[in-house]
Specification:
The complex is a heterodimer of chains A (113) and B (112). In chain A, strands 2, 4, 5, 9, 10 and 11 form a 6-stranded mixed beta sheet that branches. Chain A has a 5-stranded antiparallel beta sheet with strand order 1-3-8-7-6, with no helix packed on it. In chain A, strand 6 (54-58) and strand 7 form a beta hairpin. Chain A is mainly β. Chain A is built from no helices and 11 strands. Chain A has strands spanning 4-6, 11-14, 19-25, 30-38, 45-51, 54-58, 61-66, 71-76, 85-93, 102-103, 107-112. With 112 residues, chain B is mostly beta strands. In chain B, a hairpin with a 2-residue loop joins strand 5 and strand 6. Chain B contains no helices and 11 strands. Chain B starts with a strand and ends with a strand. Classes of the chains: A mainly beta (113), B mainly beta (112). At the A-B interface, strand 5 of A face strand 5 and strand 9 of B.
Chain lengths: 113, 112
C-alpha cells in the first residue's frame, strides 16, 4: 500500500462548481497536511495547510483532515478557470530532521468557462 | 522578490555526459532539497541539506550528488546521466520553523 493515494483524475468541471479533491494515507505518524497547487510549467506552491485533524478555510478553499479515517480533502467553492491546475496533497511527520514531504501523485483539474 | 531559481529550465543531454543543475535561493533559508517529478510516481525527494556542509540522502539518491558550500546554493550533479534520469526536477527551500516549502520552477531534463 502506498503511503499516500490520490486519484490523478483528470477532473473537468464547469465554472462555479464545487470541487472536492481527496487523498488517503497509511502512515499514522503524519501530523502536517498540505495542499499544493501546480500550474503547468511551474513549481508547486502552497495553497493550504493544517496541523492534525480539523478544518481550515481560506476564501473559496476549505481543507479538511480526518485522522481517524486517514483521509484529507480540499474543497473549492465557486471554481474559476484560474483554478485549473494540478493539485497535490502532501504530508509529513512532526519530528525528524528532514522536512521531507510525502506527496500524492496529484489531481489534474480543469475548470471550463 | 523572494524566490528559488533553477538553471537551466530545459536540458537535453546524452548518456554519460556529466551535468550540473544549479539552484539558488535568496531567502536565507537553511534547508534545501531536490525532488524529481515523474508521471504516475509524483514528487520524490532525491537529497536534502539542513545547512551548509550538511547533506543527506532522500528516497531516490542513486545516480545523483549534491553539495552545499554556501547557504544560498544547492547544485544537483549527475556524474553519468542515464535515460532513467529523464525527469522534471525541482529544488525547494524553507526556513527553520517555517512550514511552506518554496519550490523553483523546475528543470526538465532529457537524457538520450
Amino acid at each position: 500500500q502506498k503511503e499516500v493515494e490520490q486519484d490523478p483524475g483528470p477532473l473537468s468541471v464547469p465554472e462555479g462548481a464545487i470541487v472536492s479533491l481527496n487523498c488517503t494515507y497509511s502512515n499514522s505518524a503524519f501530523q502536517y497536511f498540505m495542499w499544493y497547487r501546480q500550474y503547468s510549467r511551474k513549481g508547486p506552491e502552497l495553497l493550504m495547510y493544517t496541523y492534525s485533524s480539523g478544518n481550515k478555510e481560506d476564501g473559496r478553499f476549505t481543507a479538511q483532515v480526518d485522522k481517524s479515517s486517514k483521509y484529507i480533502s480540499l474543497f473549492i467553492r465557486d471554481s474559476q478557470p484560474s483554478d485549473s491546475a494540478t493539485y497535490l496533497c502532501a504530508m509529513r511527520n512532526s519530528g525528524g530532521s528532514n522536512y521531507k514531504l510525502t506527496f500524492g501523485k496529484g489531481t489534474l483539474l480543469t475548470v471550463n468557462p | 522578490e523572494a524566490q528559488v531559481t533553477q538553471n537551466p529550465r530545459y536540458l537535453i543531454t546524452v548518456t554519460g555526459k556529466k551535468l550540473t543543475v544549479t539552484c539558488s535561493q535568496n531567502m536565507n533559508h537553511e534547508y534545501m532539497s531536490w525532488y524529481r517529478q515523474d508521471p504516475g510516481l509524483g514528487l520524490r525527494q532525491i537529497y536534502y541539506s539542513m545547512n551548509v556542509e550538511v547533506t543527506d540522502k532522500g528516497d531516490v539518491p542513486e545516480g545523483y550528488k549534491v553539495s552545499r558550500k554556501e547557504k544560498r546554493n544547492f547544485p544537483l550533479i549527475l556524474e553519468s546521466p542515464s535515460p532513467n534520469q529523464t525527469s522534471l526536477y525541482f529544488c525547494a527551500s524553507r526556513n527553520t520553523g517555517d512550514l511552506p516549502l518554496h519550490f523553483g520552477n523546475g528543470t526538465r531534463l532529457t537524457v538520450t
